[in-house]
Amino acid sequence: QVQLVESGGGLVQAGGSLRLSCAASGPTFSTYAMGWFRETPGKEREFVAAVTWNNGVTLYSDSVKGRFTISRDKAKNTVYLQMNSLKPEDTAVYYCAAAAYRRGSYYYTRSYDYWGQGTQVTVSS
User: What are the phi and psi torsion angles at 111 (to 5°)?
Assistant: First the structure.
């Protein structure tokens, strides 16, 4: 069974930075891509960023492009989300996800097979 464990969330002032981590474990873990999504009450889970595992191609939503950076450490089975210039509208629960199969797109929740438990990010104004 694959497990994803996020860490690094917290409270930060607008303009500040946070770095989220997501460590994957399990005897059969392999992935084509890992991504970050976020969710606020009453809204659907929203794509934030993704990275393909083998060649490191990155994808970003327009709302975070230029402020957030996704990266991965293949040796540690870990993906990171560096979040800079945070805004109050970035406040959400952030979820890490892993795709066990090759997909046509990694922008959608349905492309992912494993999910973490989520970590809260709160940006105060």
Answer: -80, -10
